[in-house]
Amino acid sequence: MNRSPRTTALKALIGGFALAMAAGCATTSQLEEVRAEAAEAQRMAAEATARIEAAQSSIQQAMEAARAAQAAADASQNCCTDLERKLDRALEDLQRK
């Protein structure tokens, strides 16, 4: 199952707080450390999300370029096929004369 980076970061934050509370003797500095780690995890998740979105955009552009190239190749093949038919007919006409 794919989890979003934000979901993972949020779960890490909740897990960190749960561990701190379960320990029962967490100091303010320890809680601040957990919060800082969770904030860093969220920052990293947001960065990963932005990179994924940029990659998806690049993939979409590449797919559009590939479709355009395929359309041009198809048109070129059709042109060649039509020209081949015309040349065959012209050759047949010359051979009949």
Verbal overview:
- The mean pLDDT is 87.
- The protein has one domain.
- It has helices at residues 5-23, 28-96.
- The protein is an all-alpha fold.
- Helix 1 packs antiparallel against helix 2 (28-96).
- It contains two helices and no strands.
Largest sheet: none
Low-confidence stretches: none
| SSE string | HH
How many separate helices? 2
Task: Give the averaged pLDDT, no decimals.
Answer: 87
Q: Which structural class do the helices and strands define?
A: mainly alpha
Strand content: under 5%
User: What is the helix content?
Assistant: over 70%
Query: Number of folding domains?
Result: 1
Give Rg in angstroms: 32 Å
Shape: rod-shaped
- Number of distinct beta strands: 0
- In whole angstroms, the N-to-C terminal distance is 73 Å
Keywords:
97 residues, mainly alpha, 2 helices, 91% helix, rod-shaped
Provide a concise account of the structure shown.
The protein has 2 helices and no strands.
